[in-house]
Amino acid sequence: MTGREVPAPARAAAVRSLLGLLALALVALPFYGVWRYETHRRQVTPQAAPPAGAPPAVVAAGPAAGAAADAAAPPVVLAYHDIGRGGRGKYTVTPEDFDAQLAALTRAGYRSLTTEEFVRYLDGGPPPARRSVYLTFDDGTHGLWVHADRILAKYRMRAAVFLITGSVGRHRPYYLSWQEIGRMAATGRWDFEDHTHAQHRRGEVDAAGTRASALSSRLWLPAERRPERVDEYRARIAGDLDTSLAEMARHGLPRPRLFAYPFSEASEVSELSPASEASDASESVDSGTPNGILRRELARRFTAALTNNSGRPLPAGRRAAAAREVRRMEITRATDLPAFRAGLELWTAVPPGACPEPLKDTARWSPMGGTAARGGTGVVTGAFAGVFTGRGPYPGRAGYAAASYRPVATADWTDYTVDVTVDRLREATNNVGIVVRDGSLAPLTVSLSHSYVSLFAGTGERRTEVARRTLHDDTVHRVRVTVRGDRTEVVVDGHFRIDWTEPRAAGGNGRGGLALNIRNGDAEGEWPRFASLRVAALPGAGAGAGAGAGTDPAGAVR
């Protein structure tokens, strides 16, 4: 035996060890396979088949009356949470209802946008093809993988999920797992956006235990008996947002471009918001308050934030893009198909040319805050109620009423004229107001009485008279108001003229539709009346003037 030879007993022992390891592997392999299968099953839930039935045929959409540029329009943004069966709460839509809603959209010729297409529009690109929707889901529940994915595939649609990245894989099976998210991303049907990492929660904000959104509030530090300092709050939310973005990158997802507020809150502040009117200057978005800090931190990372609540109408459009905040049409378990159709019509943009006689469109006026009676029995509620046209009923023998015409659908109006005839005016006892750019950051009220016309910029306590002209005393006056970009021209009775330029009306900040108000200060006298009101788009105004999809029957959601 040489020095290099292995003794026979050692060779035999090595062979026995190798055979033992092979036997152990053969015994363990089935158990390992079962373990891997069970792990996979826990992380990737089996998908459910979509509701039966083939997608409907598309109904050719005809041109909308009065639409000068009907080929493009702002999209409607829909907000869902979960898709599932059983008693899972008001925000869980059944697969059958979701299927029916997508079928209705398909039948009407709608197409779903990718996040890239939607963001490109918000960044100043042209509006997408008319009849576009952007489908969004908040939170990242596993019902999106189990139910919604197969239904989207059935209708060849796309959607975006706003993930709470700190909840992914937790509280299974309620939230999605990263494995399910990976499979969803691979289909090409889903985009993934941001909904915080761990700030989708309520926290205590004072010593009394008051609870509020942790993202938009400075939290109470009980050990130190004080609220967070501004720098501590900023560091907390900035760190959470950065962690969320890092988690998505770590799992191979593209960087999110959009953010959805937890609890569908909003931070957009304007003088039109009752909350901002009640607050002091410290609530300005330029201050060091949570509101301003949060908006700045979001603006550094995202193109826009999405919400289901806002202080003023902010449907997808140039006004919303300027605010960097988009409001969505929320869908819940209670949204049946008729309500879905009605909501879609409410949220679909219409151009000025499609609404030539708003006074005849009585069901689409929304009463505004401050509508009240003095010496009367109630307020204007429900539909238009004829209070502006002389038919009544009125809120009282004396009082005040205000209403906005289709405030969501007209949010992007610009470059239009309003022609009004008012009668039954009486000296110092009654008057009317015509509000243009309604809902914008630069609304302008034309206040008309028996003997004068005034222009008021702004609303509420910040409303300021910027011009006044004395008129020939008369019970009847005719007014033409022309809105063109940041300029407004008012002509009364053909020759009393006022021109006003509002710097804040530049771009999307100045877009908005029409509102009316009316006042009677004499319980023994009659209310004034809008004898006629006509709206028209200025010549050459197209999609940039708020042209929308209209409401033509051929393209209605059925």
Describe this structure in words.
With 558 residues, this protein is α/β, with parallel strands linked by helices. It folds into 2 domains: 77-203 and 253-277 and 297-347, Glycoside hydrolase/deacetylase (TIM Barrel, Alpha-Beta Barrel), CATH 3.20.20; 352-545, Jelly Rolls (Sandwich). The protein is built from 10 helices and 28 strands. The strands form 7 sheets. Strands 16, 17, 18, 20, 21, 22, 23 and 27 form an 8-stranded antiparallel sheet that branches. Strands 1, 4, 5, 6, 7 and 15 form a 6-stranded parallel sheet that branches. The protein has a 5-stranded antiparallel sheet with strand order 26-25-24-19-28, with no helix packed on it. Residues 31-40, 61-70, 269-286, 370-383 and 543-554 have low confidence and may be disordered.
Number of strands: 28
Helix fraction bin: 10-25%
User: What is the SS-derived class?
Assistant: alpha/beta
Please state the CA-atom Rg, rounded to the nearest Å.
30 Å
Which superfamily, in CATH terms, is the homologous superfamily of the largest domain? Glycoside hydrolase/deacetylase
Count of domains = 2
- Quickly give the CATH architecture of the largest domain: Alpha-Beta Barrel
Residue share in β-strands? 15-25%
Q: What is the CATH class designation of the largest domain?
A: Alpha Beta
The description of the largest β-sheet is: 8 strands, antiparallel
Summarize, please:
The protein has 558 residues and is of the alpha/beta class. Helices cover 24% and strands 24% of the residues.
